[in-house]
Structure formats: C-alpha cells, structure tokens
Amino acid sequence: MMVTRIRDHSLQTTSSMQINQALVRFGSLDDVERDALAAGESWLTRHERDRMRAISAPQRRRQFLAGHWLARALAAQACGGEPGQWRLDTLDDPRPRLMCSGRPDLWASLSHSGPDVAAAVAHQPLGLDLELSGRERDVVGLSRFALAPEEAAQVAALAPGPEQRARFHLFWTLKEAHGKRSGEGIRPSTARRVAARPSLPAPAEAWHWPLPGSGSLALAGWPGLEVLPGVPTSTASAWRFHPAA
Questions:
Q1: DSSP β-ladder status, 194-198 and 237-243
Q2: DSSP H helices in 132-161
Q3: What is the pLDDT of residues 48-62, one digit of tens each?
Q4: Do 89 and 169 lie in a common domain?
Q5: What is the pTM of this model?
Q6: Which of 50, 59, 142, 179 could make an S-S bridge to 186, C-beta 3.0–4.6 Å?
Q7: Residue 186 burial by CB count (10 A; 0-12/13-18/19+): exposed, middle or buried?
C-alpha cells in the first residue's frame, strides 16, 4: 500500500501492482483538476460526461472531474498505459471499476473534502474516505446517529474541540471506507451495528491516517494488504470491523 500526498503530478509508473497491494493518493483539487483539464474531455466516457453536465454545483462538478482523472492516473501508474486509455465504469456495481485493453481490471475508490481530492486503486474491492475539518458540527449528535454506541461514547467523553472532532472524523472516515468497500454506502442503521476497533497490523483490514486540523484519511481493504516502501506507516493506525456490542 502506498499513500502519498501528490506534489508532483508527473506520476511514475511502478512495477505491475500485485494482488495484495493498493495505491492511494490525495492532493489539491486545483492541481488535479489542472491536469484533467489539460487532457481535454475525450478520456471521459459518455456516461461520465452526461453525469458531470447534470451536476449543477460548480464545486461538485470540479470534484467529479478531478476524482475521475486521479483514479485513471493511479491506474496508469500501477499497471501501465496512459490515464486517458483507462475507462471508469460504475454501471453494474456502485463500486468503480477501471478497465484498459490488455491490462487487468482494477477496483477504485474516490473521495473529496474541501480543497482536496483522493483516490485509491487495487485488484480487490476497497474503500477510501477523506474528511477535512471544516464547519463546526454537532459531532456528539452525529455520533449517536451514525456510529456504534461504543464509538459514540468515545466521542462524547472528550471535551469539545480539536481532539473531539479528530476522534469523530476517525470513526466517520472508517465507516465511510467500510461502506464504500462493500458498495452499500453508509447507512446509519447499519453503521451503528458495526464497530471499528484497533488491531494489530497483521490481521488489520483498515488503516487510518490523521491529517492536520482534525482531518482524517481512512482506507478499508483486507488483511495482508502489503505496504510498499515509502509509506509513512508510523502515522497509520490499524483497525478491524466487528459487530457492535
């Protein structure tokens, strides 16, 4: 697993990504959008172009374009080819798939928050969620609505402030990543029945990276997901999902 904040978008192709590996990137929406616009629109499928043109909110349209380009850039880095040669399809499954002639299909997961966008690709289904701390929210109330009771209790036990927001975002992004991996999304009634608990690295199926300002990046994968050289593993915590008590 390789997790890096994009600074130079001239991504270099890796050796072919193995079955137990994943590639993750997050970076500035402005930078990724600039790369996407420079490539024109021919790399978008007709379905993607129709979806993008139906989005009325300018910011959401930018996020759509950037996320779909970033997923293709990662696919090209992981398995070769040019980003524009990869096709992204969500017609038969809510979980995005990436396809390119002569290359193995990949699963993808996309996320965006504020001025950043993130994507992950792998040979197996996975879920990625990015959350940057923005407007003030009632995180205690949201925790009771969407988190398992034991998770909500941890959030409520903290004094209002950055630490409480960070704890909420930790569980929230893990829940979002879990729902994206399964394709079910985050449904409060279901999410309350699943608890994320710390794990040893070997049996872990999810990872969390704290970001500045109480932000979070979470990835739901599978036990044995390989960490490629260069990943800041010292900042990642390992997790597993369990039936809530």
A1: antiparallel
A2: 139-146, 149-156
A3: 999 999 999 999 999
A4: no
A5: 0.92
A6: 179
A7: middle
